[in-house]
Hints:
Elements: E1 8-11, E2 28-31, E3 43-45, E4 58-60, E5 66-70, H1 77-88, E6 92-97, E7 102-107
Amino acid sequence: CRQLGYSRALSAPWYAAYGEGTGPILMGKVECRGDEVKLQDCICSTISCHHDEDAGVTCVDCYPNIRVVRSEEEKNQHECVQLCKEQFGENWNLVVPKTSSEYLCVIQ
């Protein structure tokens, strides 16, 4: 959920609760602790999986007027403002850098 800009996950149902996906399965048997920044930071294996086991997530936003945006590289203030607008729309602006790669955006 953080990777999508939400505060936290409300639930993470299994067994294709939102329907079965198609195509290659990129991650199997995924185990997250809850503090990961990206899904790719979770532990996973390449054990054979099937789409009837697909997982989903229901995200919630405790702070609907604030979003976190992430960047692979450090950015200056102007670049951060542009990043907020690109990620969330023209009504969003930079509040303050959270870390060297995470920035808080707020809706105007």
